[in-house]
Write a structure and sequence with these properties.
With about 240 residues, the protein is α/β, with parallel strands linked by helices. The protein has 9 helices and 7 strands. The protein is about 40% helix and about 15% strand. The longest helix has 18 residues.
Length: about 240
């Protein structure tokens, strides 16, 4: 189990967790889907660009490393034949249709081309994770991939019992999606190195909290092994 959040826990915290038997391993089912949450240029910027931070003000410093791990999981999922679903956070540049979010971060219409406005580069999924024509891409307006989208019905139609959630950011759209996975009674896996955030304390604390109540936070290597087992089992039938 990951211990990246251990430095933030006091002895009293550890006692509470032990007493309540929090963070038990939930396990996984036999029909997983990979959910790639908002793997867009506004979240990462351009790899190697010297002015990345200036041109992409909402980019996450660890986005490129996480994207490399997501690519491994995406390739493994395609090889295993499990469903792959992407989401994009896309805002209408005319009517500014996201509400409270823009009131909180001051990133409304007029802030530039490299955010998440419809028709701009910032809104597009990064090339390293480009969806295939046969893969689903859902546009959303809020944090959770389930809110205002047909994701739940699509998962039910594909008889999915386990959601593997990757992308960004850990404390916003990933966490909201993971909470909704739990609320809909899906098994949920969060591959630790394949999610990322802008601030490390929020990244680690939200990993801790998801692992405590909503999901199994696991190393990417373990998730790859799980996906491979699923693929081998399907090929054997």
């Amino acid at each position: 189990m990951s211990t990246s959040w251990d430095d933030y826990l006091t002895e009293e915290d550890r006692a509470v967790l032990e007493r309540g038997k929090w963070a038990m391993k939930a396990g996984a089912g036999v029909r997983p889907a990979l959910l790639l949450i908002d793997c867009q240029y506004y979240m990462t910027g351009i790899r190697g660009a010297p002015d990345n931070a200036e041109k992409y003000p909402l980019a996450c410093p660890t986005g490129f490393a996480a994207t490399d791990q997501m690519k491994l999981l995406l390739e493994a999922s395609r090889e295993a034949g499990i469903p792959v679903i992407f989401t994009r956070f896309v805002v209408d540049p005319v009517i500014d249709d996201v509400g409270m979010f823009h009131r909180k971060i001051g990133a409304g219409v007029g802030r530039g081309e490299n955010l998440y406005f419809k028709g701009t580069h910032g809104a597009e999924i990064v090339d390293d994770l480009r969806p295939l024509p046969t893969e689903i891409v859902l546009d959303k307006k809020k944090k959770s991939a389930f809110f205002g989208t047909p994701l739940l019905s699509l998962l039910i139609d594909r008889r999915v019992d386990t959601c593997i959630v990757v992308g960004g950011s850990t404390s916003n759209c990933v966490r909201a999606t993971v909470v909704d996975c739990e609320q809909h009674n899906f098994f949920c896996i969060v591959p630790e190195e394949a999610v990322y955030d802008r601030v490390q304390i929020t990244h680690k604390i939200n990993l801790f909290d998801m692992n405590r109540s909503y999901a199994d936070v696991m190393p990417v290597a373990d998730v790859l092994a799980y996906i491979k087992r699923i693929g081998n089992a399907r090929n054997a039938t």
